[in-house]
Amino acid sequence: MIPGLDAHRFVRDGVGLAAWSGGAGPTVLLLHGYPQSSYMWRFLVPALLADHRVVLMDLRGYGESDAPSPDDLDHTYSKRAMAVDAAHVLDSLGVESVHLVGHDRGGRVVHRFCLDHPEIVTSAAVLDIVPTLHMFENVDRAMAEAYFHWFFLTRPCGLPEGLIRADVERWLRARFQGRHSAAYAFEEEALQVYLRAFSRAGAVEATCSDYRAAATVDLEHDVADRAAGRRVERPLLVAWGTEGYVGRSFDVPQVWQQYARDVRAAPVAADHYLAEENPEQALHALTTFWANL
């Protein structure tokens, strides 16, 4: 998929997980967002391979990983389940310590991983998000318009699945339009990679279930952690696009300080898709963060 990486397939509880790895040095695990796949890291991987062991993984329901039936959200599409997937991949590769990096949905998995599996986390970075719980507790018109899909994708009775399946390509392209800086345009090749994965059987249903879990069981887990005083203990880099909704609407470091003990900040000149719109600044933010741990 990306030069310099070897392909792997691991199975956890019957779910096939697509992963790639290469390079040598401290291990970095990169987790993608919606509606993408590990291909979103294509601009960062070559530089990271120079002095890191790089691991990519497609979240369950996305990319080339299996999309199990969402009969039980808690055990299939909760961020807790996805974090266990990531831990399984790392264990299968013999990784004992890791720098986590997650964009969008992947960032929410990174947040949960830090809380559930802190023993192997060296550091973590989340790109262009504030915590799920904070988002749902601060809904206003601007959030509802910018993140309308958070509510649409949770609707029951197969409504979003049916509407998206009617024109998958139009839906997917709409997810990128208007959410990237004017200086950047997604390459058609990248859009086709994302479209092929998103169009496969079960993918639309799985990704809707991801969002339904975020609005239900994930919130239950987050509320329980807050009540127990649990926060991210490892150094946490929070990066955001200065042209996007998150950067315009939140004091991103201040929000994350309620959820993590050691927060470092890195604004990036981009909208939502930092690693593709401005890979140079995104990479600089990560490597500077790691150099100062």
From TrEMBL:
Keyword check for Membrane: no
Keywords (A to Z) from UniProt: Hydrolase
Annotated SUPFAM superfamilies: alpha/beta-Hydrolases (SSF53474)
InterPro entries in the record: AB_hydrolase_1, AB_hydrolase_fold, Epox_hydrolase-like
Matches recorded under Gene3D superfamilies: alpha/beta hydrolase
Domain AB hydrolase-1: 26-259
Molecular function in Gene Ontology: hydrolase activity
A Pfam family per the record: Abhydrolase_1
Designated name of the protein: Alpha/beta hydrolase
Species for this entry: Nocardioides bigeumensis
Taxon lineage: Bacteria, Bacillati, Actinomycetota, Actinomycetes, Propionibacteriales
